[in-house]
Automatic annotation (TrEMBL):
Residues 21-171 form the Cupin type-1 domain. This is Germin-like protein. Signal peptide: none annotated. InterPro entries: Cupin_1, Germin, Germin_Mn-BS, RmlC-like_jellyroll, RmlC_Cupin_sf. It comes from Capsella rubella. It is found in: Secreted, Extracellular space, Apoplast. May play a role in plant defense. Probably has no oxalate oxidase activity even if the active site is conserved. Oxalate binds at residues 66, 71, 76.
């Protein structure tokens, strides 16, 4: 095992271990966020094992977003192929400084490893972006899903205090994010 994956015996490696087609095809954004991420990591291309890279395609509906999330094992570089995106990341405590910019077709933006970041389609048409990540398996922690959709749920009084909300609001949020 290297990075959690078996290294394939070189005698059995084929060209298909280094190939994946279909990134030119749009995904269907989901109703919840208005976006869909098409992954191409070591699980889709075994030849990425140990190379420290992966790529994704993100399709955004009008007003869609890739909600606040983090990649615990990768930095990300995002390229806007079509549309207009508001993007940003927040530095860690104590500053919690927001770095944000509106990107247009052809623009590129970098999200440092581990920082909470987002993208939102602020244009009048669907948008498409491609992102390179510095890991064969970057992981993704979507903040709202993780905090309000944990299994089992985090005690509502803990989240109420952390987010300065009443317990009923937290319970309502947990019900929305329950899988």
């Amino acid at each position: 095992f290297v990075n959690g994956k078996f290294c394939k015996d070189p005698k059995f490696v084929t060209v298909d271990d280094f190939f994946k087609s279909g990134l030119n095809k749009a995904g269907t954004p989901n109703e919840k966020t208005g976006s869909v991420v098409t992954l191409v990591n070591v699980n889709q291309i075994p030849g990425l094992n140990t190379l420290g890279i992966s790529i994704v395609r993100i399709d955004y509906a009008v007003n869609g977003q890739n909600p606040p999330h983090t990649h615990p094992r990768a930095s990300e570089i995002l390229y806007v192929a079509h549309g207009t995106l508001l993007v940003g990341f927040v530095t860690s405590n104590p500053e919690n400084r927001l770095f944000s910019k509106v990107l247009n077709e052809g623009d590129v933006f970098v999200f440092p490893e581990g920082l909470v970041h987002f993208q939102a389609n602020v244009g009048k048409y669907p948008a498409v972006a491609f992102a390179g990540l510095s890991s064969q398996n970057p992981g993704a922690i979507v903040i709202a899903d993780t905090v309000f959709g944990s299994n089992p749920p985090i005690q509502p009084n803990v989240l109420a205090k952390a987010f300065q909300l009443d317990t009923r609001t937290v319970m309502d949020l947990q019900a929305k994010f329950k899988k």
